[in-house]
TrEMBL record:
InterPro entries: RNA-binding_CRM, RNA-binding_domain, RNA-binding_YhbY, YhbY-like_sf. It comes from Alkalihalobacterium chitinilyticum. PROSITE patterns: CRM (PS51295). Residues 1-96 form the CRM domain. Pfam families: CRS1_YhbY. The keyword RNA-binding applies. The keyword RNA-binding applies. SUPFAM superfamilies: YhbY-like. It comes from the Bacteria. This is Ribosome assembly RNA-binding protein YhbY. Keywords: RNA-binding.
Length: 97
């Protein structure tokens, strides 16, 4: 689990990122979770945007993605979800203690 300090650090790092995934009408599926997992392994921190036509609630989408990708939810802000998962081979971010 992330501490408040670590979440603040990650939010500041995520601020300038643009969302690289969009959850739309189809909602969250296996393929999307696999792609997000791969992207998290490469980047550690990413944004997912929830489109207007998505039938699921954004908090529900965030929950599905964190469970599916075994990632940490940093924040849900507006229709954007920020996810973090420590990379096994490509570690870039050093979290504060």
């Amino acid at each position: 689990m992330l501490t408040g300090k670590q979440k603040r650090f990650l939010r500041s790092k995520a601020h300038h990122l643009t969302p690289i995934f969009q959850v739309g009408k189809g909602g969250v599926n296996e393929n999307m979770i696999k792609q997000i997992n791969d992207a998290l392994e490469a980047r550690e921190l990413l944004k997912v945007s929830v489109l207007q036509n998505c039938e699921d609630d954004k908090d529900e989408v965030a929950n599905d993605l964190t469970k599916g990708a075994r990632a940490e939810l940093v924040q849900v802000i507006g229709n954007t979800i920020v996810l973090y998962k420590e990379s096994r081979e490509n570690k870039q971010l050093e979290l504060p203690q």
